[in-house]
Structure formats: C-alpha cells, structure tokens
Fold this protein.
Amino acid sequence: MDKLAENITNLTAAFQPYAGVFAGACFLVIGLLLVIPSEKSHKIGIAAIPWTMAGVILIVGSTYLGNWAYEKVKF
C-alpha cells in the first residue's frame, strides 16, 4: 500500500507545474471565443471561465490532496 500511495503522491506532484500552461491555453481559447462575433461563442466562452478556474485549483491542490491521501493510506 505504501508503494501505491507513494506513486499517487509522485503523480500529483508531477502535474502541478503544468497548471500555468493549462490556464494559459484555456484562457487563450476563451479569448478567441470572445473575439469571434457570435453570441453563441460568447456564451460558451463565459461559461468556460469557472470550469477553467476550478481545473487550475484542482491541479494546484493535487499535491496537497495526494499527500493527504498518502497519510490516510499508509500504515
């Protein structure tokens, strides 16, 4: 179980540096959607902002979540 928990911790720590890249790519796409002169694309872009923020928070918090899970699983 310790090896599995350690692998989970390592996996979550590996994803954390990519949070900025994820946010940048998402906000670039959202910006492009807002530039397109269409009401439908504006609604899609505005609706994607909270999901993008939630994804970034999840990625940044994944290391802490992984450490918490590791502490709960290890013996």
